[in-house]
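job 3f2a | input accepted
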Amino acid sequence: MATYAIGDIQGCYDELMQLLDLINFSDTDHLWFAGDLVNRGQQSLEVLRFVSGLGERAQCVLGNHDLHLLALHYGATRDKRNSTLRQVLQAPDRDELMNWLRHRPLLVEDEQLGYIMTHAGIPHIWSLGKARKRAQEVERMLRSNDAGDFFNHMYGNKPDTWHNDLEGWARLRLITNYFTRMRFITPNGQLEFNGNGEAETAPEGFFPWYAVRRQSPLPRRQLFGHWAALMGSTGQPETIALDTGCVWGFSLSAFCLQSQVMTRCSCTAYQPKPHENLA
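job 3f2a | predicted structure (279 res):
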């Protein structure tokens, strides 16, 4: 039995099937998904149905695009960017899929294998214990009857720096942004939301989140997606980037947690327009 962690799929179902063939995925294997199952690619519905159908053989954390889909489902926003999620919102099993999706965690870990996974990462200002508790705060809200209210308050870039006395929607919004949107950060934990290029393009005073010395070392190797411009490379063996730009025409990657081997398949599902960035 093997466990594979797979980067951002973003609706690229055909490429996912090709990747599973490459790794000889079997009925005894397990899959971890780093979030952003949907959007931009043309087969988000097929991806959701496949991953949810794996049951306990799949672990999936929520990404920012997954949360955007849930916000559309709850009527908290309108999709002004593209129509690739329309097939999901018009599907006969929409409610079932959205209920499954909102019960996905922000953080998963395996103590025996020694890995932890979130969509964007874990900020250096939090210990693993604090990260667990803060992920659970958002997860409880998503699974409650107040989920619709959460999505009405989820969007926004403020606050951008953690304080222990944060409360209410501001607290939940910032926790969500750390786990699902983080790329560049300052040593005091301030997030920057505009940069999405290579690590070397950090704005002045900001650094790639994984390059800042942690206040409390994590006892697990970190797996994350979200940052396609890294192309799977952080330069740090304890921090493994899984998003290799599948939906941007590059590749979809699977990292075997036992062997630590990365397998990639090429992707031609989506070609970015000149004004679009890898995000």
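job 3f2a | The CA atoms of residues 34 and 119 lie 5 Å apart.
job 3f2a | closed
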